[in-house]
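>> received
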Amino acid sequence: MAKPKTQMIVQPKVKWSAKEVKRQWPLLVWAGIFFAYGILFYYVPLAGWLMAFKNYKPKTGLLGSKWIGLDKFKFLFSDKNFLLDIRNTLAMGVLNLAATFIMAILFAILLNELKSKGGKRVVQTISYLPHFLSWIIVTGILHDALSSSGIINEILTKFHLIKMPINFFAETKYFWPIVAFANVWKETGWNAIIYLAAITSIDPNLYEAAEIDGAGRWAKIRHITLPSLRPTIMILLLMNIGWVLNAGFEVQYILGNGLVKRVSETIDIYTLTWGISQNDYSLGTAAGIFRSLVSIALILIANGIAKKTGETKLF
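>> returned
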């Protein structure tokens, strides 16, 4: 018996006639607005990158400043403080990525396991709230909780875990974990939203079939929930890898002090110090360009690895 021929579905081409343009004009107007917004605020400012290759002075302007080539980049990589800031930024970026990424997945799975719909809504609402708090408020809460007379030291002292209160903001070994904890507490609930949405799209029949076969909660999570979340996890991981060097500015700047400066300063703080405080806009721009190029390279490398391993990729 001959196999039936499969027919390819060809999408009809849209002919942009005057009638079609007239019919679609609201969408075209909105598309034009967002296109212009992207050009104006994302591409036009890239002209400012010229400052990194010039000895920029506000008096002479961008075009009138003297061309110096790669001198600012050479200064960056000969500056021990900048190399130290790269280490700090990379370390805190990786730590923040790992902590927030894993906690968001775990929180979404655990929240999905709650049987009470009312309880689930309450927990969701409470977990979202820290995202809408400014870093000033978050760091203020952290500073009060971790101070010598704060609740953390009181609990540790009361249970005889420590003899004397710990000055968490005076010892370098505590600074990176504090930053990671702050990011986890603030963003876990918000980051879990997309995982919760992905979990709700899983076919309930899969769970019913697994339950008939005798699978418990852990088995269903391991063999159904996690594999179903895998494409979402890979896409978000690839996107977030590009933000590794964006370890933050507010937390490090507010909680940092002279005692922990060696581990608290990041590329953003370096850019602020030289670009604004020292009025060396060229050096600050060079540091920003370096961070942007590294971020692009990380995304390309991660996407290439995902492509070779057969995982879900960005492009």
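>> The radius of gyration is 26 Å.
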